[in-house]
Structure formats: C-alpha cells, structure tokens
What does this fold into?
Amino acid sequence: MKIKYHLIQEEKNTKARLGIIETNHGTVETPMFMPVGTRATVKTLTPEELYDMHTGVILSNTYHLWLRPGEDLIAKAGGLHTFMNYHGPILTDSGGYQVFSLAKPKDITEEGVHFRSHIDGSKLFLTPEKSIEIQNKLDSDIAMSFDECPPASASHEYMKKSIERTLRWAERGKKVHQNENQSLFGIVQGGPYEDLRKYSATETVKMDFDGYSIGGVANDGESKEDMYKAIEYSIPYLPKEKPRYLMGVGEPSDIVEGVIRGIDMFDCVLPTRIARHGHAFTKEGRKNLKNACYKEDFTPIEKDCDCYACQNYTKAYIHHLLQVEESLGGRLLSIHNIRFLIHLTEEIREAIKENRLLEFRDAFYQTYPKKETNKQKKEKK
RNA sequence: GCGGAAUUGGUGAAGUGGUUAACACGCCGGAUUGUGGCUCCGGUAUGCAUGGGUUCGAUCCCCAUAUUUCGCC
It folds into this structure.
C-alpha cells in the first residue's frame, strides 16, 4: 500500500500539525526527524541502535546506491530493508541533491543530468525515469521526484526555468512510477522568491503526489530569514491532507521554526556528520568535545539525556576517543546527536498537543543560541 | 683517554651573512543543514644549545663550554 497520512491536530497558535504516517514498515508520528543513511547505513550505527533512539523513517540515496552496489544487487537481496536489515520505513532521495553538489549547470539538460562519478570519474547520465526506476528496485517506502536543486542565490530568471524543467521531470517520473507499495513525493523549488514558490507548489500539487517536499533550502549559506520565507511562501499552497517534508534541514532551531511554519518531516546529515568531527548537540548549542576544556570533564554530554552515550560515558572519555581518533567517539556522538533531534521532535509533539508551541520555542531559545549563517557573519564584518 | 659529527618550536626536520625562519605532524580554535567531508579553514619559534668574538649586520663564519652521537684504544 501507499503511505497514509492522518492529520490528528492543528496547533492553535501556529501552523504546526500533529499527525501519523502509516507505512508498510510501521506507523510513525509527525513532526519527525529522519536520520540519513546515504549508502544504506546511518554511518557507524546499527539498526538496533536506531530503534533504541526511537528513529522512525531513515533516508538513503539513489545516486550512491546506483553506483555501489547497484540497484539490481539490492533487488536481488530482497530490497533495501532486507539488504541493510532495517525494518522501519525508508525514504530514498532521488539524486536531485547531487545535481546541485556534483553537476555543473552546463551538465543539466532537458533530458537529464550528466555526472562524473565521484568514485572513478566515469561518465554517468541520470534521468527522472532512471531515478524512479532505481528507487522502484530499491523498494523504499517513499521515493522522491528527480528535481534540480538550484542554489538559493540563483537568479529569478534561472530559477523559473529550473522550476519549469523540474515540473516536467516530476511529470515524467510520475508516469513511469508503477510500484503500488511505494509512495512518491513531489518537490517544491523557487528559492527565496514568493511568486516562484507559489507557482512551483501550485503546479506540483496539481500532479497529485503522496506528499510534498520543500527543497532548495539550507544549501547555499542563505540567511535563516530566506529559509523561513521559502517555507512560508510554499506551505499555503500545499494540501492539508498530505505530509510536508523540508529537505535537508536539521539544525535544532530550524526544526522548531520549521514545525511552527507547518513542516511535518525533516532529514539532515548534520547529527552524524558533526559527530564524526567531534561536535555534540546540546540544549546550550553545539559543543566541540575536542576542546581541551573537556579533557578532565567526567560528566555526560547532557546530564538529563536518555541516550546510550550519556547513560554510560563521560565527556572526558569521548574527548580522549576523539583525540586518538578511535571510531567509538564518533559513534557515541552520533547516537547522542540523533537521539537529541528525535527527542526534540518528541517534545515538540507534546507541545503541539497542548497548544503551547510558542512557549516551547521561547523556552528553547532560553538556552539554545540563535545561530547566524556564515553569510550573515561575513556581512557583520 | 683520543678523533670525528651534530645541537633550529611540543616532535621530525628544511634553510640563509641582510625586510615576515619552509614543510609536515602535534597542539589550540573554527566550519559543516535532501553526505564528493576520518574533510575543509585558521592560529601556533621576538627566535635557531650556552658564552664570547669577527662583521655595518650573524641562526648561518671563528673560539670556548655543555650535551648528544659515532669510531678507535
């Protein structure tokens, strides 16, 4: 079956929604955070550890699995769930983000996108049809349309052409999408432009997808204001009875702000990436456990955190693991960071139930610093 | 005991008679938002063993001392 979204409650003072999504691999509550497992693994973590942190949906990536080990091998293994032994819901990204990160503008044509493999430099060509075909074989619960993800700094003119092409790509992808057990999401683009977000959302919704994503956000050092505007400009045109997914966003304050503006789903590499580089999310903001001040700090990352790392290890020990580059350090921080974000969404859901999300946000910012983007920092100087 | 060689930051080391002493590692920070990140970006020797001397000028030349190291008895 396709996923089923049930809207349970709308928060009184904001656009936030409480909901559940039924999938073939379990039912999850929204708003939710989805950890990223690009290459069929949430880096360094086992599925059991993910269940322990109450992870629902995880992400994987069409582009990476297409290259290695190949979608046919995964199909032969019985699909992605069986292959990686993760039995919760899986969402696959379409490779659209790699259009942004790997391809140059001149490589993007009406037919599809020319890539150079990041592994061996060989020439690759990905089309909307191919992306959907691969995702079908991967057998994820939710597939994404193949889109172009232009930087927020792209001109209005470029953005408009890009959106129109992405709409044609969405149409083509939908046409070849046959898997009755897999849902398909459309993606809204348009950068910071109000008219383009409206246009992109309206036209995408006409195609009747199983859910809608807001893309092209948080990929270009754009300001927080621009990111929030992109959400505000898109949400009014998305149907209430379908889930809304803000792609690539997972900075704690952005999750709070996103939910308030009507987002149900988030994914982000941040918790696992910064973990491997020694950083922990905390209620006081990010902490760099490599800093010398933690050398003799024999307390947990956060004293009231229920994650495996905080229940069993000290900052001094994790600091040491990071210093000597033992992989357990990044693993423990990944566990903590993912649990931190999932716990944050649990608290958000409770706040929505009680219609006190704005109070929750105020309390959140009492300890969590409002962060500036690099661009804003530069502009200040 | 005799003879030779060496002595540059936390470490391994380049280097030159004349503004800022290369590089690497380490250390100290920072970045990271649909993962081309065990990655990237900064900072880190007011000083070249110590004391004399030569010179306009010495980390670089000379002498002595100390330490290390190699060889011989």
